[in-house]
């Protein structure tokens, strides 16, 4: 038992944790993925000085399958920086346009609830913090207890919003709320773990101020066209998968206890 672990209960009316092998129509995994669980926690609190490692996911409500059809658009808006500077130069997407609109099915989950336990670690940027890890642990607890978040957490996709609350003891909460937890075993098989490697996230990053950006330009000897905005290169997404297995309503997810495959 580590003292740097936090647990948050997340629930919602709908959820869809899309399987990447489905190219067109969305089909959900039967349970929340570690990357989606990390997204819930980072929506509540995150800073470059720390990062999360999902330790375990406990299933309080597995939910039930349901499918529906909805209108989507096939195009994306290009020229985002142009829109920021001159919105009048960007042509918007009309959802009523028959050439743009398309109907797609979604196989999703309804009425789900999870207990997400994660280990909080300091990144290389936060190792010199005089307050250390307790500062971030207390901030996570304070925000989760008061219902604060940077943006509304979601269960897989943005339109499926999630509610959340702080949990002191994950196993005690599971035994209280899921009477069949001992008999709930499942083998979802190969599941997406994350798109961003934990070792890369452990480095952290720092946004550069105007003076630092100007110094980089001067060091290059000429005015750089696209000067860097942070002190590190962006992390390139790379999908990692693992064999998900649920035993007694608990799915172990810590990267040091499971085998990941690219």
Q: Which helices and strands occur, and which strands form pairs?
A:
Elements: E1 5-15, E2 26-27, H1 34-44, E3 50-61, E4 64-73, H2 80-85, E5 101-122, H3 133-146, E6 163-166, H4 170-177, E7 186-194, H5 198-201, H6 210-220, E8 240-247, E9 250-252
Summarize the structure.
The protein is built from 6 helices and 9 strands, in the order ββαββαβαβαβααββ. It has 262 residues and is an alpha+beta fold. 25% of the residues are buried.
Tally of domains = 2
Q: What do we call the CATH topology of the largest domain?
A: Alpha-Beta Plaits
Q: Unreliable runs, pLDDT <50, ≥5 residues?
A: none
Order of helices and strands, N to C? EEHEEHEHEHEHHEE
Number of continuous helical runs = 6
CATH level 1 name of the largest domain = Alpha Beta
**Largest sheet at a glance?**
9 strands, mixed
What CATH architecture of the largest domain do you see?
2-Layer Sandwich
Beginning-to-end CA distance, first to last residue: 29 Å
Count of beta strands: 9
Strand-residue fraction?
A: 25-35%
In angstroms, what is the radius of gyration? 21 Å
**Residue-averaged pLDDT, rounded?**
87
Helix residue percentage: 10-25%
Structural class: alpha+beta
Shape: globular
